[in-house]
Amino acid sequence: MCYHVLNRGNARAEVFHKQGDYAAFLKLLCEAGQRVEMRLLAYCLMPDHFHLVLWPRGDDDLGRYMQWLTTSQVRRYHRHYGGSGHVWQGRYKAFPIQEDDHLLTVMRYVERNPVRAKTIPIRKAQRWPWSSVGTPPRGVDKPPLDAGPVPRGRNWLAWVNQPLTEEELAAVRESVVRGSPYGATAWRQRTARRLGLEFTLRPRGRPRKKAKK
To answer: For a FRET experiment, which of 97, 106, 137, 156 has its CA 20 to 30 Å from that of 79?
Structure first.
C-alpha cells in the first residue's frame, strides 16, 4: 500500500540551510530509488522537515529505503557541517493511505506545503523548487516520479493550487498527529486491525466514569 512518510529536524531545528542541502537530498532520493526499487509518487522538502509519498513493492522495502536515505543524509550533514548527534527528531513516521481520492488528497497536501507555510512567500506550488511539482535549479537532477495507482488527471497542477478544504486538512493532520491510516472509515478500521494500529483510532483522553446512581 501507499504511505505518507515524514520526518522533522531534531527539536524542530532547520536541516536544509541552503540550496546545496536540498540538492544533496534530491540526489540521495535518486540513489535510494536505485538501491531499493521504490515508487516515489510525491515529495516536498522544507527547511525543517520533509514529506514523501511512497508506494513500496515489497513488505520490507519501505524500511530499507528510508534507513539508507536518512542514514546517508545524516552522514552527509555531519561531514559538511561538522559535529555529531541527532539531525532528525527520531525515526521517520509512515502512515498508510487508501488508494483512491484519499491518496490524491495527501499528494496535494504534500505538494502544497510551501504555499501553506508562513515563512515561504509563494502563492503557487510550482514556484517552490524542492517539491515534485517544482523545477530545481539547473544542474540538479529531479528524482523520477511514478504514475501511481490513482491517475492524477490532466489538470493536476491546477488542482494542487486549489486549497484543501478544512475537513481534508483536519483529516490529514489527524493522521499525522495520531499516526493513523488515512482513508474512509471502514478502510481505516480494517487497515488498523491488519497493521496493529487500532490504538491510533481510539478516542483521546481517559474514558468517562459512569455516574453513580
So the answer is: 137
Q: Which CATH architecture has domain 2-200?
A: 2-Layer Sandwich (3.30)
Q: Taking the model in full, what pTM does it have?
A: 0.92
Identify residue 99 by its one-letter amino acid code: E
76: cell is: 552527509
pLDDT digits (tens, 9 = 90+) for 184-203: 999 999 999 999 999 999 88
Whether the CB-CB separation of 19 and 86 falls below 8 Å is answered with no
DSSP-derived 3-state class of residue 41: strand
Domain boundary assignment for the chain: 2-200
DSSP state of 40: E
Query: What span, in angstroms and rounded, lies between the C-alpha atoms of 159 and 125?
Result: 10
Nearest to 124 by CA among 85, 116, 5: 116
CA dihedral 126, 109, 16, 145 (to 10 degrees): -70
